[in-house]
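Researcher: Dear colleague, please comment on this protein.
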Amino acid sequence: MNVCTQGCACSDQRSTQRVMCEVFYVFILQRMLIPFFRKFFGFATLLCCTVAMADSVDSLSLFLKSTRSMRADFVQTVISPAKENRPAKTKISSGTFAFVRPTVFRFDYAKPFVQNIVADGQYVWLYDADLNQVTQRNQSQALATTPASLIASANDVSSLQKEFVLLAQPDAEGLQWVSATPHSSDSSLQRVRIGLRVKGGSVQLVQLDILDVFGTRSLIKFERTDINPKQLTLAQFKFVPPKGADVIQP
């Protein structure tokens, strides 16, 4: 196994896959899986929401309480804004996603490039099969480099609200929506919207809609979701670099 400390250039598509997975982990797996909806948001928030809109917060709260682990297929669409003399670009990737709260997850991309992104609780491993290349990063340090990383360790609503404005949004596309907008002007995110489907007494995460400060929109849609699958174990989140792969430790 070859180890190098210098970064290697990857394609735009591969880089997009890596960045979006880290954003997803920080915002959903860490921050959402903290039971932060224990406290009333205040009358000012309610003035902006109808009763139906307030239900989206209740639904999110139920999702947080009931979902300890999850596995799903996903399709990720990244739309880059048009630039001078260049039209907007759309990139689509797909694969499977799984997590066990609070610290392990994996994205397994199948198209357009085979790529595995695994967080085992200690390290985040990014494996590019075509390049036979692995990037290994300390998980806590990797999260610390993201704009919203402080939220990952928030213990209560007041801590969360120091960093984000959390608002219920109108129902759309048959889903309930909750938005989070960072207070900090230094954040790389403009906002994140979480789409939830309520069916009977259960709540399912269906979409994640991310808009960054550069105007790039990333929409992740989840399908064939399995909530709290008994066969999903921590052993499935272990990663061993393939023999002969270059291992980068930034």
In short: The longest helix spans residues 12-32. The two ends are 16 Å apart (CA to CA). The CA atoms of residues 79 and 85 lie 17 Å apart. Residues 5-10, 28-54, 144-157 have pLDDT under 50 and may be disordered.
